[in-house]
Amino acid sequence: MSITMSGNRTVRPGESIQDALDEAGPGATILLAPGTYPGSVWIRHDGVTLHGEGAVLVPGPGVRADMPKLHDASEDVVSGVVAHGVRDLTVTGLSVRGFSGAGVYAHSVTGLAVRDVTVVDNAVWGVYVRESTGCEVVSCRASGSQYAGVAVSFCAGAALIEGNETFANAFGVFVDNSSGVRVLRNTSHGNAIGLMLLNQTYDGEPDGGVRDCLVAGNDVHGNDLAAGGDDPGSLGAAGPPISGVGIALIGTERVSVVDNHIHDNHPSGPSVMGAGFVMGSSKGWGGDDAVANHILWNRVTGNTPLDYQLGVETGLQTFAGNLAANGDPVELAGWRS
Description:
The protein is mainly beta and about 325 residues long. The protein is about 0% helix and about 45% strand. Keywords: Repeat.
């Protein structure tokens, strides 16, 4: 049996996390003892804290048929920790490994904190937050996902992505049609692209846009995987070919990129982007031109084939104090070697 003490409930290996959550109800704190726990977890109540230092969640039997399905994925895909339509949720400490969907999947959540969580080899996403507000992903490790290690998608309220390490994904950090996002002091390496902010919408999706974001103090290096293509099982499947990119801003508005170190990113395959730092328009894909962005005091060095590639109207942006050896356009105020 699970143990209840001082408002907390402790679950041990061999016991059901799902039963403990359902029985405890709103406002519960569920403490997972170290060990391995087979099966998915659906958090259905407000105010829940799930904490599991040394606890590892892995795929197992008994997935509830009514558990919310991962957006834009097949019905048989299973995620590790799932929350939909709840408030004030905290997930800390545990590891989530080997699920066919996302490691942590939050949809329509208000007030989410994912802290010190490790997500490894979850097939589609690591931590995926969609259509939510007031969310943070802090001090997590995310690796081995087909798309992003950490992603916020169509999130209109402020979000914080800070102090994470992302590697061996198509995208290390992906800000997808979300505004007011702060991406601070993350380390992203060994992905196809380290950090991408993309304004690109499709029929049936919410209104998009990437505006008023801050990208600061990140170390983005050694991103050399190849993603994209028609093979459904490939890294970044169905997307354009991307490889060797550090940070990309596509169709963004009023985004500040400040004091980042973008270095030693090298493509290992074809790529629609050809530099450590890239800016471009998404107007042809349902997005917008990039305007009013501020690119300040970044060190962009040792990347191939270029350090920077700016496919935007440079007069509509602000560049100052950036360090780079080579780029396109070659002569541009605000960049020096």
